[in-house]
Protein 1
Amino acid sequence: MKCNKCDEKAIIKIPYANIALCKNHFSEWLEHRLERVAKKYNMLDGVNRVGVAVSGGKDSTTLLHLMYNLSKIYGFELVGINIDLGIDMGKGYSSKSTEFAVKNFEMLGIRYKVVRVKEQYGFTIDEAKHKIRRPVCSTCGLVKRYTLNDIAEKEGLDTIATGHNLNDMAQFILSGYFSGDVLDLSRLKPVSPPEKGYKVKKIKPLFLIYEKEILTYALVNKIPFIYDSCPHTFRVGGATQDKIRRKLEEMEDEIPGFMLMLVQNFIDKIQKPLEKEYVKEDEVSKCKICGRPTSKGRDICSFCATRISMGVLSEARGK
Ligand SMILES: [Zn+2]
Ligand SMILES: [Zn+2]
């Protein structure tokens, strides 16, 4: 198989675009594609200082390198962010992840911040798993959201980019239809405006890029990343979620471009009417402990409430 653009050997076939590309032409193609997507969805409008959330996996490390290229073209500042969640499970998962994230930050010579949740907030995700009744992945999501908003505020970031890829989006959409989670679906966007009370917007630059393409880009460009996935993830939605993901991949094999159509049509045609129907503008109150925004009628935010349940914060302590 030869590259469509030169005489080199093709390393990847992109069936939905009906092309095969060599190493260099594939990298160039993906970089252009990302730039086109970012422009089409106005991801970089008014952007000055962007934080990239890097877990150390293939998606977020590739995103970091792609955003680095864009920062040179569009002249915005880049800050690397890694959250050490304290997930060990006998495998040292978090510490290895942080190592890979830092390796990439230093490789590119960009400013970065590592937040160690244990040091900063007094507990680890592993500890929360045993002590808190809610599923561990939902606690983890809460911790990540809170920490990212907090760093954005402290570092003066106007934008945070995360590494959700096309396969993640397709899986989320299909399982949202399946379970009727209209509120979650109506909030799924490539560019999310700031949460009430915050100033930072969140973008998902990889949302139309296939997992396979990201992996290929990481490999051919020798981006260091951690292969292990979180030791807790097998619990997210359990076997059903896995099956939905695998079925989507099978559909993709039979109908090239299936996931792309599913996600692009959802975002371009379905999400907005859903948002209009289901998302209500909520008023916010101020958490009496940390001062951050919380839902109206609550005086303690769910993050501080979690810290209280973990026994690392007392309700009377105030700030
Ligand atoms: Zn070529
Ligand atoms: Zn709070």
Protein 2
Amino acid sequence: MWILESTASAGRLLSAFRWSLDSLYSNLASLLCWLRATLSFPAAWKAQKQQVREGPGETPGQEEEEDSDVPTTPMSVNYHFTRQCNYRCGFCFHTAKTSFVLPLEEAKRGLLLLKEAGMEKINFSGGEPFIHDRGRYLGELVRFCKAELRLQSVSIVSNGSLIRERWFKDYGEYLDILAISCDSFDEQVNVLIGRGQGRKNHVDNLQKLRAWCRDYRVAFKINSVINRFNVQEDMNEQIKALNPVRWKVFQCLLIEGENSGADALREAARFVISDEEFEGFLERHKGVSCLVPESNQKMKDSYLILDEYMRFLNCRNGRKDPSKSILDVGVREAIKFSGFDEKMFLKRGGKYVWSKADLKLDWGFQLCNRIQVQNRSDVICLNGLALSGAWSRDFG
Ligand code: SF4
């Protein structure tokens, strides 16, 4: 009897012990599963996101749905507030399809929304941004973004033809970077491209603006679109002499509805160059340390573009499809339809030292350089001393 009772107790003990072990094992297994899922989530999410971006046959809007719970930060925004321009560049990919410009207070409201959503840099572009209200509208936006929103960087891209010294006096202190478009140092090529207005010389103007940027402490940048008419040009000496903080070199890009297709205002097919030709241009200028190249592939989806209604423009399908306006639906909702490729933005160096305070430029830098312009070669001095030749002038 005693033996039987002891055996029964031992059996109960053993069974209880096995239950505890089973329970412990089951709890441990659940914990391990949870840990594995948690640790592998970012990689899986990234892979899924990549698959959506690169997957064949995606439909418009598909990616936005996939990304909807991961808001994109509008760190750097390009606001094309006007489509009007005084130039007629044959490859222009933001043409004068409307004459609309937002009232100043509405534009400021949109900029505040962007700042609240994480914007650090704003770039004002067009069209020609200095055309509206003789640059006052632009100046007020620049001042608002720097003095009131305290953005790290405020920049402008302009063809430069309408900028007056008075503007620098009034607004220069609020501007970090001024980028001037220049595709050639041969005026005849500029005229062929459409960057020219009668008696005004685009290259002469560039020299004047370079000097004002130095005088009013604005970082100077040059943008060039490489196309059929300038792809063979050698710009090494001129660019080095102008000494910009950055020289952005773009490959001419076709955008349906802007410079290509039935409803476009331009037909840019005759300007297009191959990838190999673009590479050849870059190779010829590899000695220019400030050169930042942008092939079609890098350029297409790596910019957050806002149009004149403050709608993001999605270029994923080779045209500019607008979102709703941030003024109507807010930044977070509108940006889902921007088509923005944040990875490519970082890969192309979209985040760089972009405030003039951080650039630590030597504003006292005075440079004498030989600038050769095709058909004319003279010694000029950017500190204002005219040294020789018909091309020499006072840049002070
Ligand atoms: S200057 Fe710029 S906006 Fe004006 S036509 Fe030329 S590319 Fe277009």
